[in-house]
Design a protein that fits this description.
The protein has 3 domains: 64 residues, Archaeosine Trna-guanine Transglycosylase, Chain: A, domain 4 (Roll), CATH 2.30.130; 110 residues, Transcription Regulator spoIIAA (2-Layer Sandwich), CATH 3.30.750; 196 residues, 3-Layer(aba) Sandwich (Rossmann fold). It contains 10 helices and 20 strands. By secondary structure, the protein is of the alpha/beta class. The protein binds S-adenosyl-L-homocysteine.
């Protein structure tokens, strides 16, 4: 099969050769063979040498996303192989029937534009790009063959689709309609959590924080006496519920704060489902709440700070940095001597280095001291392709604060 071609400018070949999956409009010297949006295209060097094959969408700044660097057909057998590889990587995690896992992590699994999360027998698919959108039924069919789920539900209600000229869409792709709510476990956790895959955030939950919940549990377990855990931006309360799985269950008081009422309802139900003895849910803006606590005498032993993405692009880095600094500064103010702060940023445009500098700035202003006990990142079902460092969006620090 002959595909239309994108000829790469001579000085822009290097990233393609190094297997970065994105080809920006500025890197394309010319197109040949009249490629249409959503078509597969060959990417070639100025002298015609084959470099890679991927899919094309001139509406996006990223005009092509690369799928393979071999001259091979991108047929069902290829898809089966790529999906199979992604599933194999997840064997790294200890799992059971009711587990939730990210099965396919888009560019980071060499499948640009495709996210697949599993909640037990329910799969949730996100199509972020035109090509994946056009092929989602085919992909759902292959996933059904590979995994025999009960349901494959689509949650393509994400803003990034607009860059591809796509509307938000949700609905059943394969199998039975999912229940409004059901429970799952995070891989290797005993905790059960409620999820609403039709209306919940992302595909229903923030699976990337799975392992970090354990580190917070360890921090809680290391402390003596009553332990007060402030879980800011709690969503469904995962950090608190897992912390309560630990040895300090009876002495642990959890305060979940979120601005979303439905998130807090889920958090309260999750606490009840897991018989968490002491928890409260507070609907508030997290920064307002922190400032108010800082002014009062309320103090906490462990604070989790997991805000939504502040920087959606490079232009927003400065304002995002101010936002993170303010939050962290006020978090330091409410932590007892010897307490812990687990602080995160999920902004892809804020590097780990920069994030650490921002947190340092906040610490310096607070007049406190802190030690990095652990660098935190997304769980292993969110692998990061070494050829695609942009995939490392979640970074965090577990700090002991003095
Ligand atoms: N920590 C959660 C995920 C957090 S996602 C977990 O482990 O699952 C970010 C959360 O922040 C969302 O639940 C959103 O409702 C909430 N949020 C967004 N803006 C907020 C604000 N200004 N104050 C408090 N919560 C906010």
């Amino acid at each position: 099969m002959k595909y239309p071609r994108l000829i790469i400018a001579q000085d822009r070949e290097k990233p393609v050769r190094q297997r970065h999956p994105w080809v920006f409009s500025g890197a394309i010297a010319r197109t040949e063979g009249d490629p249409q949006p959503g078509d597969l295209v060959d990417v070639r060097a100025h002298d015609g040498e084959f470099l890679a094959r991927g899919y094309y969408n001139p509406r996006s700044q990223i005009q092509a996303r690369l799928l393979t660097w071999r001259d091979e057909p991108l047929n069902d057998a290829w898809w089966r192989q790529q999906l199979g590889r992604a599933l194999e990587t997840r064997r790294f995690m200890r799992t059971n029937q009711a587990c939730a896992l990210r099965l396919v992590n888009a560019e980071s699994d060499y499948l640009p534009g495709l996210i697949v999360d599993q909640y037990g027998s329910v799969l949730v698919l996100q199509a972020l790009t035109l090509y994946i959108d056009q092929h989602k039924q085919r992909i759902a069919g292959l996933l059904a063959d590979l995994l025999q789920p009960r349901t494959i539900y689509e949650r393509s209600d994400v803003d990034v689709r607009a860059k591809e000229g796509l509307k938000r869409t949700t609905g059943l792709l394969w199998g039975e309609e999912p229940p409004e709510r059901f429970t799952y476990t995070e891989a290797s956790h005993v905790t059960h959590l409620w999820v609403d895959v039709k209306h919940g955030h992302k595909t229903g939950a923030y699976l990337d924080q799975r392992d970090n919940r354990y580190w917070v549990q360890s921090a809680v377990d290391s402390l003596t006496g009553e332990v007060r855990l402030l879980n800011l931006f709690s969503y469904s309360g995962g950090f608190g519920v897992v912390a309560a799985e630990g040895e300090n269950r009876q002495r642990l008081h959890i305060v979940n704060v979120d601005s979303s009422n439905s998130a807090l309802a889920l958090a309260a139900d999750n606490a009840r489902l897991n018989h968490v003895p002491h928890h409260e849910e507070i609907e508030a803006d997290a920064l307002d709440f922190l400032r108010q606590e800082a002014r009062s005498s309320a103090r906490y032993d462990v604070v989790v700070l997991d805000p939504p993405k502040f920087a959606h692009n490079k232009e927003q880095i400065d304002s995002a940095a101010r936002g993170y600094k303010d939050l962290n500064l006020n978090a330091f103010r409410v932590i007892r001597e010897g307490g812990y702060l687990a602080t995160f940023s999920c902004s892809g445009s804020i590097s780990r280095d920069l994030f650490q500098k921002i947190v340092f700035g906040a610490l310096a202003d607070s007049g406190r001291q802190a030690q990095i006990v652990r660098h935190l990142q997304a769980a292993p079902d969110h692998p990061i392709a070494l050829t695609f460092p942009e995939g490392e969006y979640l970074k965090g620090l577990l700090l002991r604060v003095w």
